[in-house]
Amino acid sequence: MDLNERFLEVLQLVQSIGPIAAFPEVWPKGPAKARRAASTNGNSESHKMNTSTLLRTAALALIALASGANGVRAETDHLRIAQQFGIAYLPLIVASEKGLIEQEATTLGIAPPKVEWLRLSGAAAMNEALISGGLDFATAGITPMILTWDKTRTTAKIIGVAALGSMANILTTNNPNIKTIADFTEKDRIALPSVKVGFQPIVLQMAADKAFGKYDKLDELTVSMPHPDATAQILSGRSEITAHFTSPPFSQQQLASGKVHQVLNSYDVLGGPHTFNVVYSTTKFVNDNPKTIQAFVRGLDRANEWIKANPKDAAALYIKAEGSKLAPDFVESIIRDKDVNFTTAPEGAQKFADFEAKVGLIKQAPASWRDLFWSGLGDKPGS
Fold it and tell me: Please, which residues bridge with residue 224 across strands?
């Protein structure tokens, strides 16, 4: 029996005993005198009254205990979630638009939190807000999250809450002479959202490590540039940018133009599907709000199920929520892409962590991918 069930049982006991207005008169002269009075009084009604009083006293004590213990474990009534832009965040958009987190909170028996959806760009801004207490859930690529997990082991203790999905990233080029990463020369420039520490640069380092035995061989060719700007430049053909390591929908847009071709698929580098973005928080927040965390992940699971069952409607919802100018059929094709899988189960997390430890980006790799995430994900088929 959990604490809430015991509380209700005690409350029913008190109500069955009757009114407790006379409680202040239970032991007006102290417990010792009350006991002597009860022992010398043969009146059965008085005895019943004292028995009833004792029961009420015990019940009230249990209620106070239950209320106090329950207060310690009170769940948050306000949930602040930050997300970035793009199709990778579709599960959060669906959960928001359909109120799935609030619904799951109600199902779990807690008051639905007021969910505040915030827009922040970049892992640095996310981490600053999260660690300072201005945010409850942050979102970013899995590789930057692992870096933050390692750096905050003795401070904020960042922990993953859920994956947002597995999604292939593509290295494209407009240079017809480049077939593999071994064909890049000093004349080429590879655009990435952020050099060295972002998701795409770390995957590029993994590819270089496999191809050359030198993980940073291509680092000098990389340039920091937002995906939209890099897409415009690589398609123009009039820029120093000759390659771009990017994610949906930009990779699909570029390939559909016929002006670029694929050099590398991140799934090939990892040897299979891998998580792209994740949701993470502080260990304290996760431990203090277990049912809220459970409601959040359940809400995402329901969102993922709905997306897979209704790709056309999901595309329409995304375009409306984001104010996107992308064609509905194009967005739907991304959702249906075989290399896109919306799931809360982490994939390839251990491989990313092992590589980051190997090249010194983190001090020590986790013993298991489960060490990186909330314990509730342990039953999922992660890796």
Answer: 192
Say if residue 99's pLDDT is above 50.
yes
pLDDT at 22 over 50: no
Model pLDDT, residue 312: 98
Tokens for 253, please give them.
Answer: 């847009």
Distance of CA 70 to the CA centre of its chain: 26
Q: Which two tokens stand for residue 218?
A: 């291509």
Which two three-digit tokens encode residue 215?
Answer: 């993980």
In sequence order, what are the residues at sequence separation of 6 or more whose Cβ sits closer than 8 angstroms to the Cβ of residue 359?
205, 209, 215, 216
pLDDT digits (tens, 9 = 90+) for 226-284: 999 999 999 999 899 999 999 999 999 999 999 999 999 999 999 999 999 999 999 99
User: Using an 8 Å Cβ cutoff, are 285 and 152 in contact?
Assistant: no
CA 285 to chain centre: 12
Per-residue pLDDT reduced to its tens digit, 134-145: 999 999 999 999
**142 vs 199: CA distance, rounded Å:** 7
Residue 12: band (very low, low, confident or very high) from pLDDT cuts 50, 70, 90: low
